[in-house]
Protein 1
Amino acid sequence: VELALNRASDVPLYRQVVEQLGELIRSGVLATGSRLPTIRALADTTGLTRLTIQNAYLELGALGYIESHVGRGTFVAARTVPAITIRDSDALPPVSWTTQGILADLLSEPTEGISFARAMPDPASYPLRALQGMLREATEDPVLLGYGPVGGDPLLREGVSRVLLERGVVAPPEAILITNGAMNAIDLTFRTLAQRGDVIFVEQPTYPGALEAAARQGLRVVGLPLDDEGVRMADLESHLVRHQPRFLYLVPTYQNPMGICYSTPRRAQLLALARTHGLTIIEDDIYGLLPFERAAPPPLKAGDTDARVIYLSSFSKSFIPGLRLGMVTAPVAVLADIARTKQHSDLNSSPLLQRALALYLRRGHLGAHLAAVRALYRERCAAMQDALARYLPHCTWTEPEGGLTLWLTLPHGIDEAVVYREALHEGVGVARGQVFYPQPQAEGHLRLSYGAVSPALIEKGIGILGRVVAAHLRRRDALADRARREALPLM
Ligand SMILES: Cc1ncc(COP(=O)(O)O)c(C=O)c1O
């Protein structure tokens, strides 16, 4: 096995070593437990400096591909770690997947085919008739055809206040700012609270829109790993010792992308920690109205006695994304600041669309709509898990109790980028795991959204995905077999 290094390439030599050894490990040519050459030996055979090889080994170690044991040598690790181990220096500006073109992956859908790529509600659920009536009614009021107050349509703020109360959040209408969806709320809040170079904490993995907003604003991001109850407190605490983050951005209820729901004790621990450390939490509750069966736990904001939580949400997932309507509520002074940022950005959200939604809420239609879509998504999520168990038995996945997405972990050594491309070629769109992380990851994941796909098409699409992954597994195993049979010297 030899490395094919290209000295004329723009890619640094140490990076070429990382990529090629990483590929050999992923494909199984270098099997788990095999010993890598010493730094000196590899430097000699490649003609590179020892420092170059050392840097490459360090990075492969950080990515979880290899492990060094003092006195024994360097070996291919049993399993790549789920996320890069965070070091002090890891409060980096997140990689912008947009500028790398990778975020386009998330948005590219098979033109004819099945898409699990986007966290979309089911378009067939949109109450078009009712909406048309409300829009017609709104256009009859000439005031709504002019500019509106920056905070939003008073009638909608009232309606939103009532919706929030059902989530256990007490926010009077004047404490609510209407935004163009949750994305607008995230962008405005980040811009108001943090400045270029500031550190913020996010979940890892998290919503890519938040990462992109942070990247654009030059913020440095620390990603905190999640377990099935939420962000891990030990990691959070140790990072709080090292950094003074402006805020921690969380999606505690039916998290995007993992679909997990923070446990009640974890929510309480987070609130207690925010209190003792003076930490601001931005809580994104965009999926909170979409539990399947068991009621969703109250948001952090419901227990926020110390005004540490800024809460945002939107009607994009629970109702209609095209209205582009969301909200944020925060302590008065902070909200006034966010409102100023909004004024300087886009003046106000569309009065016409706000009023149409306000009328819909005032007439009490949302409850029935939510009951219908929750049943739909519950059925589809179950259909997807059932199909995964049959077609992707080598993978693991989360089991959401609400929301629109689940998180699939690919078997060790299977490259998510290749699976993504091949699935798309076969007419099945998925979201690559990479876009949900602030920095490149070694392990392969896919986010699968089931909300807008019928059970029959879920069955078909997961079947296709299963065949794509199975073909890769066969190739991986054949390569590993060959490596064993030929007892290849490592380098
Ligand atoms: C967690 C999260 N926050 C915010 C958004 C953006 O939502 P909106 O369409 O309301 O701007 C999304 C959309 O996928 C999301 O998943």
Note: The first helix runs from residue 13 to 26.
Protein 2
Amino acid sequence: MSENEASKSHASPALSEREVQAWDVETDVVVVGLGATGASAAIEAAEAGAAVHVVERGWRGGGASAESTAQLYLGGGTPLQKACGFDDDPEEMYKYLVASCGPGVDEAKIRQYSDSSVDHYHWLTGHGIHFEPAFVPYEVSTHPGPGQGLSYTGSERAHPFCEIAKPAPRGHTVLKDGKMSGEFMMQVLMAAAQEAGAVIQPDTDGERLVVDASGAVVGLVARFRGERQYLRARRGVVLTTGGFAHNEEMLRRYAPALLGPTSPIGPEIGDDGSGIRMGMGAQGAAVRMDAGCVTLGFAYGHRDNLRGILVNAQGQRYVNEDVYQTNHGQIALLEQKGQVYLIVDDSIYSPPAAGEDDELVSWDVEVAAVAETPEELEAELGMPPRSLSHTLAVYNEFAAKGEDPYFHKESVWLQPLQSPPLAAIDLRVGHTYYALFTLGGLHTTPGGEVMDVEGNIIPGLYAAGRTASGIPAQGYNSGLSLGDCTFSGRMAAASAAKRSA
Ligand SMILES: Cc1cc2nc3c(=O)[nH]c(=O)nc-3n(C[C@H](O)[C@H](O)[C@H](O)COP(=O)(O)OP(=O)(O)OC[C@H]3O[C@@H](n4cnc5c(N)ncnc54)[C@H](O)[C@@H]3O)c2cc1C
């Protein structure tokens, strides 16, 4: 690694307050980065009575949040869940999140998030977010369409989770003109931040934190249109700059297994870990830095594919196919080294429809092999004799009885694969799309305070959203990033706003 490359993965050292000649801006709370986390933080701090100054690298803000599909994981009995006829309670949500977001979850954060989810729903709707009151039928799709605000966005109905917690759909999606719209969600949140009184300064890159002699964070060094600027934060700095999916050097150093997938975050966002590196430069600890949300969406818009079977390079099944696409990405990439195929028969296979222009529903289908018999298929794929053919024989025998004794796929998806030809859809890394964003970040309390390596709180320093390690510690369900971002942004800002100046 060259010196220049290494600097992109190293901490950005904090500046001593003694070296600051004069402050260009003085405020209570400085928020760095205006995505969903930063906007929520700005609203919360400003409504708590703090003077808030937001610096944003881009010309207007929005970040990855504006590019997202605007699903927020909320539950515990929200008005939308009730309107769609679903019972849920915070305890079931807590149990599900602990089971699905690990290993290594922060139980205190999940407890707070689950218990506060209905309140958070009201906070969002109170600031202009709207969810349309209809449910996406699980067997048909998990892709919200016009008028459908609620869907399953996780593995709640799949084994083993359905035995751990009572399933409920918790994906709450913001729609604009019938389409999922992170852009619209961000317009609403950014307008609310301005309305609350936050000052928003675009074209400004946060570079380093400023610390006093005790190590407390007292300000930020930024670059505004090429000029250095010093911002004094009387109560605290909240880092909300997103993750590090675009920083190849950080990925190489902290999360080499994530170098294969591609980030859907636009290059202009520059998800480069700058907030994490600033926090580390003020002695903040970074944790779970190898964690990422990896999505393999082979059944997102093609639910019938769940009737197929997933096999590894040895022709063995390794998972129940009905777990959610984010579980699939992680399991395929991290446990099967990205060497997996979906086996379907003629009754299931559906090529992408001509003119299908929704990039989320369409999928790049590369067919690795087609054959009339299982034996021919395994030979074509270069698998050992009696590997895939044996797997199929066992699967078919039980599927005919509506059973899956090995992996417990829900019976609604079980059918023998016996209508030739058989096909192997190529789901190997490099042959289909694995989407990535990072989950590791600064170590924070449930109140968003950043801790050092010994667990001591660093006064004046807060982090949230993908700049911190949050609810999705390692495992991920759709909506948990924006749910966590909006909620943790609020928690961090509330802590900063009430800290004495
Ligand atoms: C295509 C796509 C679909 C997705 N769909 C969903 C979904 O439906 N639900 C879900 O939960 N998650 C989804 N995600 C993930 C989710 O969008 C992100 O994880 C989340 O938006 C991160 O929010 P954030 O506030 O932490 O960062 P961001 O939204 O990226 O905001 C960070 C902001 O900080 C700015 N910034 C960065 N560095 C600096 C600096 N040094 N100084 C000043 N400003 C800086 C950036 O310009 C940016 O505006 C999706 C992601 C993508 C790409």
Note: The mean pLDDT is 94.
